[in-house]
Amino acid sequence: xxxxxxxxWLSILQTLHWHAVIxxxxxxxxxxxxxxTIPDLVRTPRLKQVRGTDExxxxxxxxxxxxxxxxxxxxxxxxxxxxxxxxxxxTYPNMEIILVDDRSSDGTGAEIDHQAALAxxxxxxxxxELPRGWLGKNHALYVGSRQASGDWxxxxxxxxxxxxxxxxxxxxxxxxxxxxxxxxxxxxIATGYWLRMLTAMYIFNYVLFKRPQSAYRRRARAHAGIGxxxxxxxxxxxxxxxxxxxxLRPDDDLYLGKQIKQHGFRQRFVVAQQCIEIEWYPDLxxxxxxxxxxxxxxxxxxxxxxxxxxxxxxxxxSVPFVGAVVGPGWYRLLYGYALLLMCILYELHAAFxxxxxxxxxxxxxxxxxxxxxxIRSAVLAVRRGGLMWRDTFYxxxxxxxxx
Length: 403
What we know:
- By secondary structure, this protein is of the alpha/beta class.
- It folds into two domains: 18-42 and 294-401, no CATH class; 47-281, Spore Coat Polysaccharide Biosynthesis Protein SpsA, Chain A (Alpha-Beta Complex).
- It has helices spanning 2-15, 21-42, 54-63, 80-88, 108-118, 136-147, 166-177, 193-210, 234-239, 252-262, 284-290, 295-298, 303-326, 331-353, 363-384, 396-401; strands spanning 67-73, 95-102, 122-127, 152-156, 160-162, 181-188, 230-233, 267-278, 386-389, 392-395.
- The longest helix is centred in the last third of the chain and has 24 residues, at 303-326.
- It is globular and about 75 Å long.
């Protein structure tokens, strides 16, 4: 019987045109990605749209408890003042701002003390040494959380600008939707064509493969976390293990969201272009260097797995463009169909995050740049035997223990 089945399948394969397999696979993969991404992507809420009546806003200000904003800063003397000034100007009244100086070598510590002298609700914290078994930022955020007295903890970066009602809107949103974790996509300021291209590719792949827009689904594996704005109920933070559970994760923001989701708490990802903004990197070279720490942990510190994944992604992004131009006969239709799905996904993504829509036409070039940054990070990590982050070196052996 087995031989009969084998003969049947062999005869089927012999009748197939082998050059039809590639376009069929590419079209099937993009169909799967499209159907998995689109429903939640088009329904992703915007934080700007949640403002209610004056009565609702009064309730949000007075009934939702205290917010402790925790900012970890290392060598951010030039930018932290703007962040603190935007926080002290918030319309939400019941909040404190905890500024953690993480072993800075510039004037960050002095600037933090200066800001604390100007506002009663600013609490300065200075860390002089890093304990073993911790990444610097994770330790700083954890130390800040121990100083916090709020019912809600907002973990934020030291270079974020908050519009005056950002926290008010966020608290209204978590109250309305009964959430324990809210993370937002800020407006990204990127100057320079290729910096915008790499930024677009990074976020596009994050949306397609990490699917933060689906984090609200209880049964989905998708989760969300963005370092610029992670608003967490204290109970959810404590019960999910705090930053101690991710002490050695360079991708701490994303994994904070993952552990909160795994412990059964409700989370949501929203777009907050008109509430929060950040200049992620000043130029292309800075972003490529900054990405040295990020990619490898997602591949369990396997450089081989990372490189193979980049080759597959390059093929996934490039083959439809090539096949639509030089593909044989009607198979061009399959490549064109895959391109159409890619275009719809990218245009929606670009519209949400205000990115250049025409960059879809050079998507393979953007993917090449993205792959270069990822592969470079893996090569450097293997060559060095570890990762350099915030001027501290961590060996691959100790980072793997953090998994």
